[in-house]
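Thread: "does anyone have the structure for this chain?"

Original post by V.I.:
We have the sequence but no experimental structure in hand. Need at least a predicted one for the grant figures.
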Amino acid sequence: MLTPQLARNPRPEGKRAAIALAGGGPLGAFFELGTLQALAESIDGLELNSLHAYVGVSSGAMLAAGLANGLTPVDIGRLVITNESPAFPASPGLFLHPAYREFTSRVARLPGLATRALGEYLRSPLSRSLAEVLDPLASILPNGIFDSAPLEEYLRLVFTAGGRTNDFRELDRHLFVVATDLNTGEAARFGGPGLDHVPISKAIQASTALPGLYPPVEVEGRVFADGALLRTMHASMVLEAGADLVFCINPLVSFDASKGGKRKPDGVLTERGLAVVLGQTFRSLIQSRMLVGMAGYHSRYPRADILLFEPDRDDEEMFFANVFRYADRRRLVDHAFQRVRADLRRHASQLAPVLERHGLRLRRSVLADPHRSFHLSLDRQRRANGRVMRDLGRTLRRLERLVAPTR
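Reply from O.Q.:
Generated one for you, C-alpha cells below.
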C-alpha cells in the first residue's frame, strides 16, 4: 500500500532524497528489503547508497546502516536471505542466542531475595498477602531472554570490512539510528551531536533491544532499548536534515480479518491463539503512533514530498509468516518486492511528476516486466560477480606471464 503525502510548497528542483525505515523484527526487515529492491530497480536515478540522509529504528536501523555503508539491497539479501557470504555467515540463531549472563546474574540474587522475603513475612505473618511476600522475588526475572551481543559482533565485522566503516563520523552522508533512553524516556539520536562517536553496531544493538526479548544495552552509563517504544519511524530526523523527498517504509500494520480468508477461520483472529492476538495488538499500537506522526509532517514540513510504503491491511502472507523458516524468508522478500511494484504501477501517473521534480523517473518498462523478482536480482549479481572473477583471473594470469623471468 502506497500513501503519497505531497508537498504543499515544494522546493524547485529539490534533489535531496532520504530513507526512513521503521522497525518490525525479522519480518519487517524482509518486507523493507523487498521494498528497497523494488524501488532501486523501478526508479531511474535513485541511488540508494548515495542518498542525503538515512534513519532507521530497530531492524530498520540495520538496513539503513547497510545502505549508508554502500551495501545494496541485493548485497544485504546475500547476507541474510540466502546466506551466500562465506565471510559473514548469518542464521536465525544470530538473533536467538540465550542470554546466559543475564540468567546467571539474576539467579545469583535469589538466595538474598528469598531470605529478605522470608524475614518480611515472619515479622508480620498475618498482615501480609502472598503477593506482598513474593513481590521482592520479581526482580530475579531477566530483562530479556536472548543475548544481542552476537548480533553486535556480527555487524561490527560487516561494517569494518570491504572499505566500510563502523563510525558515523566517517560516512559521507547522514545516518541516524534511534533508540530509547530508558532512564529518561526520551529518544536518543545515535549519529547526531553527542552520540556520533558511538560505534554504529553498538547503536543498532541498542535500537533493537526490544524489552522482554533482549536486555537493555548500556552505553557510557546510559541504558537504551528499542527505538520504536516512542515513535515508529522518526522520519522527522531526515526531514530536519534537509530532505526534499523521503521514502518511508513501515512493515507493521494492523491486520483486517473482516473479509475472511484461507488462514482466518471465519475472520476471527482469536481462533489463532495468544501469539496472533498479541501480534495484532502490537501492530495496532505501532500503526496508530505512525499515523499521528505522519499527519504532523504535512504541516511541519510543507516543502517535502513523502512516500509511505506499507503492506496491505489484508495481506495474509505478511501477517501469518514464519520468519525463521528459510523458505518463508525467500518467499516474503519476493512477496514484498512484487506488492511494491504493483503499488508503483497503480500510482504511476501521480508519481511521475513528483519524481521528475526530484530528478527521478519511473522505469515503466521495468515495472511492466512480469519476470522480475528479488531472487532474479540475486542471480544477476551472482552471474556478474562470476564474470568479474573470471576476468580478473585471466588478467592476473596474463600479468604473471608478462612479468615472469625469461630463461
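V.I.: this helps a lot. The chain has a mean pLDDT of 81.
O.Q.: and The first strand starts at residue 2 and ends at 5.
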